[in-house]
Amino acid sequence: MATEVQGAEAAGHEGEGVRRRDFLGIPASVAAVSFAGIGGLATIFPLIAQMNPSADVVAQSTTEVDLSAIEPGQGIKAVFHSQPLFVRHLTPAEIAAADKVNPATLRDPQTLEERTVDGKKQWLITMGVCTHLGCVPLGIGEGENRGEFGGYFCPCHGSQYDTAARIRKGPAPKNLEVPKYKYLTDTHVVVG
Amino acid sequence: MSFPWAEHYEPKNPLMKWVDERLPLPRLVYNAIGAGYPVPRNLNYFWNFGVLAGMALTIQLVTGIVLAMHYAASSGIAFDSVEHIMRDVNAGWLLRYAHATGASFFFIVVYIHIFRGLYFSSYKAPREMVWLLGVVIFLLMMATAFMGYVLPWGQMSYWGAQVITGLFSAIPLVGDSLHTWLLGGFAPGDAALNRFFSLHYLLPFVIAGVIILHIWSLHIPGSSNPTGVEVKGPEDTVPFHPYYTAKDGFGVAIFLLIYALVLFFGPNMMGHPDNYIPANPMATPAHIVPEWYFWPFYAILRAFTFDFGIPGVITIIPAKLMGVLAMFSAIALLFFLPWIDTSPVRSGKYRPLFKKFFWLLVIDVLVLGYCGGSPAEEPYVMISQLAAAYYFAHFLIILPIIATIEKPLPLPGSITEAVLAKHKGNTADAVAAE
Amino acid sequence: MVRILGILVGIFFSGWLLVTFLVGAYTYVSSPPAATAEAEFHLHPKEVDWSFNGPLGHYDKRQLQRGFQVYSEVCSACHSLKLVAFRDLEALGYNEAEIKAIAKKRQIADIDPKTGEATTRPGLPADHFPLVYPNDTAARAANNNAIPPDQSLLAKSRHGGPDYIYSLLTGYRDQPAALLKQFPDAKTPTGLHYNPYFPNLNLAMAPPLTADGQVTYGPGNPKPTKDQMAKDVAAFLMWAAEPKLETRHNVGRAVVFFLLIASILSWLAYRSVWADKEH
């Protein structure tokens, strides 16, 4: 017994200065390091999650709009997700002008039906953000320039939208975005 | 690193070889914390605390940078922005509590690290520079922590800032101008808050830089060890990797465990409830106290209640200035320790007289801390006067005297001799038991 | 040289401190500091066994709802809760419709969209609980020169937290004769109320919970005694101050469990690495 212990001591001495272990060759070390790695990954989650919108921002994520005061031919600019929201009450002439266009000729083919809710074709609700580089187009307010197609006109680079807010001329690639919305009543809409 | 038996970096991986030929960073890491850095084989757990301090700094940097994405440094909204973080930001409560708890743990770890240095005389030649840089890091930490505590703009934030910046007005001649210059105003306000935020963000990176110098200056002579006897040959050392990477890994796990217990189950334990009240310049809290890690120095500051001079005849130094001088001297004297303690023996293990006074110092600092966190009333004022008197006497009077009159125990011939002696004792018992 | 200067500095500070101590000790013994009414008669908060105490602590949703009811019907007349949003009440177990109704009952300061004048509108879930007074001056004018503190953080900004709130609400009593005898100058001033749990014994708030049944609890709840109402509102205010307590405890248990395993694994790794090295 005594000799075994002394032998082990001597073996320990001979091991000095010589790298006897390749790192990670030991199961315990592998387990410990892997486990720590999992912990490290788990720690990353809150660090990334904190950059997502906070609860108060998420709570502001819907906008309610009252349609009752908007006459045909008029529109209002509301706010949705901190950006302009165009709510327009289309006249029968504007609806007809939109329906007359063959969608296949459009850069971003869509009909007015597709961009409004069934039975509520006269209410056109879109974002007020030009799909080119993000300016706010003109045309929603009284007396503003509506461009050649009677819809919206973006003064930054000349994009022209028609009465269904579809891109007809100019550099913008897509029609004005239609956000998700639903009718709570005939005159009350919640967007988002 | 100047030990001749140290392993040399020989990259096997072709990518590492390519990088190392162009930027010797892999080599640097290998020589600093890899198998290329021989370390005494007999280090005890008190040697874990340097790495733990680095870990704490990393936690503070990461949580701090992320918190800064949501914090607003303007007196009208700072308090509410912190509550916004606590309530609305995803995992915000976790980040805020991690940062607040992290500051406390940073100081716990650093205080143990410092006391290790005091007991084992890590400050002695040839490691004086390591110690000096360490005291610089400690000062930077205190400045950073002080400014960080002001940022939530609670009652203690505001009034703590008021008291500490007010100390500067005690300096004769330039005091008042200095005070106004520091604050950018006559009382803590937006100017002070904004500059404290800017500097609080900056200083941790300065600390990181000084830590690099601190470790670099350590790696020139190499680490000391619990016997205080220098490394004599290869049998005295083991390569840092894997021996101390494994031991530090275990230390980090235990540190994180205790940290997590406090963070998740007692996050407000070390704080003060008054800081959950928005700052009110018109109403002073009943008892203004800083965070616990400043309490010993706060006790020294408040211990001076009489003007220095002859009462009724002449005042040489007003009490407020005495307190300020004493508080700064209490930290400044640490810089001179390598030249005050002239004993040729390093480790407290072999210095029986020194050992007794060392433990007295530990108790003294704990007593000072308790007094610093208590109201400035009797009996705490009297106790802090005695405790502060001992603090200065210990470092400036007692240590040099001990160094000359002490009779140290015989030192082991080498580290290996000490290790074997310890084990021979154990195995002899095992043999006898059979 | 350094040592000599050091010894001189040491004698300077230690010496002066000892002198100060001796003078102070003499003064303390010869003319001890006078006792104060606060020191003698102030009581520490009663300890309550809250459901949220300890590492397994969690909120009792029904208690929180009762406490919210007490806050709404009693406290909110003077005390704001401005850091809490109506949508946060989901944690108490209310559904979307109930929260909308709670929000709608309260008026939120806003601007008339047509004239720009200051006006109020019914609340939405995203709104925070409104302020009671437009500013501090108005608050003081209406409350005997005292500002009723906002309650969002009350449970964390007072020593004892919910224990203190409960003790204060149930602690109102007449000033004891013993106090008046020992400190004849410490009679409670008019307009203030004696309460030994309050730091300086007299506070401006009149007892808010005056009778059992002041608030009516729905079926399936304990009786709304003063004691019960005080407990419930203290629990609610703890939630208002620390809404993430349960999440924190849940994540904490998982993290601590993980770190226990990690500690064991790293200990085993450390032992296996050092197995052949005496140290």
Query: Which pair has the most extensive contact?
Result: B-C, 67 and 57 residues
Instruction: Please name the fourth-level CATH homologous superfamily of the largest domain in chain B.
Output: Cytochrome Bc1 Complex, Chain C
CATH fold group of the largest domain in chain B: Cytochrome Bc1 Complex, Chain C
Distance between the termini of chain A: 80 Å
The biggest beta sheet of chain B, please? 2 strands, antiparallel
Look at the helices and sheets of chain B and give the structural class: mainly alpha
Average residue-wise pLDDT of chain A: 85
Which value, in Å, is the CA radius of gyration of chain A? 32 Å
Task: Give the strand content of chain B.
Answer: under 5%
Coarse shape of chain A: elongated
Q: Report the count of strand segments of chain A.
A: 9
**Strand neighbour order, sheet with most strands of chain A:** 1-9-8
Structural class of chain A: alpha+beta
Keywords:
heterotrimer; A: 192 residues; alpha+beta; Rieske Iron-sulfur Protein; 3-stranded antiparallel beta sheet; 4 helices; disordered N terminus; C: 279 residues; two-stranded antiparallel sheet; two-stranded antiparallel ribbon; 10 helices
